[in-house]
Amino acid sequence: MGFSLFGPAAFAFSEEEEGDKEFVGKPKLEMSPFNFSVIKRGIVEGQATLQIVLVMENTQDFEVVRSRLPQVRSDFNTALSMLSRQTFQVNRPIDPDIVKAYLTPYIDARLGVGMAEVFVKQALIHPN
Q1: Which residues contact residue 73 at a Cβ distance below 8 angstroms, ignoring those fewer than 6 apart?
Q2: Rounded distance between C-alpha atoms, residue 34 and residue 24, angstroms
Q3: Phi, psi of 83 (to 5 degrees)
Q4: pTM score, whole prediction
Q5: Is 16 exposed, middle or buried (0-12, 13-18, 19+ CB in 10 A)?
Q6: What gap in Å lies between CA 34 and CA 123, rounded to an integer?
């Protein structure tokens, strides 16, 4: 179970899945969900919701990421809008690996390479 706190020694821990073991104990931030329309050829075909989690190596990185979270969110909003036009289809599930690969250069450009790792916690898409 994960959660995010905004305080001087804020951490969030996850023990939900076997694959998360290497990240247990690392600070992470769960971003508010991204909600946006899936538009193809000027027509709104559906709605998408993505829950993104950022994992950092240490508390110093956590504080830097937390302080720049509004800029990261803005970058991700722009990136996800572009990605949805190119890749998302309402009749197929969203591939979290594609989203992670697409967002990683944005966070590396904003914060520095390797400062935080992007994970997709949840990806939903609904046709209109």
Answers
A1: 31, 32
A2: 25
A3: -60, -40
A4: 0.77
A5: exposed
A6: 10
Q: Which residue is associated with the tokens 């989690």?
A: 53
Element (H, E) at 127: strand 116-127
CA distance 121 to 16: 11
Q: pLDDT by residue (tens digit) across 61-106?
A: 899 999 999 999 999 999 999 999 999 999 999 999 999 999 999 9
Residue tagged 């590396």 (tokens): 108
121, amino acid identity: K
Pick from 97, 77, 92: which is nearest to 126 by CA? 92
